[in-house]
Amino acid sequence: MVELKHHIFVCTSCRINGQQKGYCFSKESVGIIQRFMEEIEDRDLSGEIMITNTGCFGICEKGPVVVVYPEGIWYGNVSIDDIEKIVEQHIEGGNVVNELLL
Amino acid sequence: MVELKHHIFVCTSCRINGQQKGYCFSKESVGIIQRFMEEIEDRDLSGEIMITNTGCFGICEKGPVVVVYPEGIWYGNVSIDDIEKIVEQHIEGGNVVNELLL
């Protein structure tokens, strides 16, 4: 069994036909993933936090979309500059970032 | 806020460079996603269950990997023929499929 405190999913618009093309991808979602990875590594959280890129969540107009489980928190219109706050306030502090909630 | 009963994630080996290449993809994970979608639609569960394709979970040797949240259940070595059981027993019945657990 895999034991994680949080599992962060970031839409990078992967399609099952192998294309990566879509709104979240066009809005720097790959940079969002990379920024999450840096923050998690810098804070030495990689044993308990996983970051996974995904295909479309079906709400492209609200992208880039980030979903955090097990709590099932959905963030929308996320930018690279929001990542530090999500990690500090939600992942480390346990308090959802209300202004980014969907 | 998005309200889901279960969110099923299936690794299709999407990479953030846009390539879809890897063990889960080579082992028919795209067919696994399609089978999940058929089962969910046939059972009229699409309002409460979401299926999302993902990039690598880092345990390729145990792929294809399927992760179900919010309960955080990880299944490995999943085949297309296992999907009906996962949906019937776990998603509808609430009982984890022990023989597929990681």
Automatic annotation (TrEMBL), chains A, B:
SUPFAM superfamilies: Thioredoxin-like. It comes from the Bacteria. InterPro entries: Fdxn_Clost-type (IPR048109), Thioredoxin-like_sf (IPR036249). Coiled coil: none annotated. NCBIfam families: fdxn_Clost (NF041612). This is (2Fe-2S) ferredoxin. It comes from Mobilisporobacter senegalensis.
